[in-house]
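Query structure, 223 C-alpha cells:
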C-alpha cells in the first residue's frame, strides 16, 4: 500500500467516525418508531448523495491531481495538503477545547424527531444533507485523483470511500433486521458511549490524517 492509499484509508475512517454523522445516524434509529424503515431511507439518501459526488468528480476531476512521479505530488496538490493538514489540526484543537453544548444536542434531537415522522422523500433528503462528510469529501476526491485512475477506477475507489464512511449505519441496519430488540438496546448504550468518547477517537484519526497530509505536502514543496 502506497502513501496515497494509506491517506485514502485514513480519510475514509475519519469520515466514518465523524461525530456529527455518527450522532445523526444513531439518533435516526433510536428516536424512530420504525427504525429499520427510517434508517434504510436515511442510509439510501446519504449513500446516493455521496456516490453522485464521486461520479461527477470522475468526469470533472479525473486524474488531474496525478503526478508523473507518485512519490512527489504536484505543487498545487502539495499546497492543498499543507492547508488541509493545518486546518484539520486547528479544528481538532478547537473541538477538544470547546465544552459540549447541551443546546446543540437538543437541537439535533428535535431535528431528527421531525425527520423520523416525515415521509420517505424527506428522510432521503435528510440522509443526503445530515449524513454528508463535509470537508472529508474534497480530501478523498484529491486522494483518488492522485492515483491516476481511469473513470471506472475512480468510481470504484469512491464506492470504497462511500461504503466505509457509512459503515456504522449499514451495520446497525443489518443488526436491526436480524435482532431488533437487542440492537435497540445496544444502540441506546452506543449513544451514551459515543457522547463520551467519539470526539477523542475521531481526534486521533484526524491527527494521523493531518500528519500524513502535512508530511506529503511539505515533502512535495521541498522536492
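Result returned for the query:
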Amino acid at each position: 500500500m502506497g502513501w496515497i492509499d494509506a491517506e485514502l484509508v485514513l480519510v475514509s475512517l475519519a469520515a466514518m467516525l465523524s461525530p456529527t454523522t455518527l450522532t445523526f445516524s444513531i439518533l435516526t434509529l433510536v428516536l424512530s418508531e420504525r427504525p429499520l424503515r427510517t434508517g434504510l431511507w436515511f442510509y439510501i439518501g446519504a449513500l446516493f448523495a455521496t456516490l453522485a459526488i464521486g461520479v461527477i468528480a470522475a468526469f470533472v476531476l479525473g486524474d488531474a491531481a496525478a503526478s508523473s512521479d507518485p512519490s512527489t505530488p504536484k505543487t498545487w496538490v502539495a499546497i492543498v495538503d499543507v492547508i488541509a493538514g493545518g486546518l484539520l489540526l486547528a479544528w481538532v484543537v478547537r473541538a477538544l477545547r470547546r465544552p459540549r453544548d447541551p443546546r446543540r444536542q437538543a437541537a439535533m434531537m428535535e431535528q431528527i424527531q421531525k425527520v423520523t415522522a416525515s415521509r420517505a422523500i424527506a428522510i432521503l433528503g435528510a440522509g443526503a444533507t445530515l449524513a454528508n462528510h463535509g470537508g472529508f469529501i474534497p480530501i478523498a476526491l484529491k486522494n483518488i485523483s492522485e492515483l491516476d485512475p481511469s473513470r471506472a477506477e475512480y468510481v470504484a475507489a469512491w464506492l470504497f470511500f462511500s461504503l466505509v464512511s457509512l459503515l456504522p449505519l449499514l451495520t446497525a441496519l443489518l443488526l436491526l433486521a436480524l435482532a431488533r430488540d437487542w440492537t435497540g438496546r445496544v444502540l441506546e448504550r452506543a449513544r451514551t458511549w459515543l457522547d463520551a468518547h467519539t470526539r477523542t477517537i475521531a481526534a486521533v484519526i484526524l491527527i494521523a490524517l493531518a500528519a500524513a497530509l502535512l508530511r506529503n505536502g511539505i515533502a512535495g514543496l521541498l522536492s
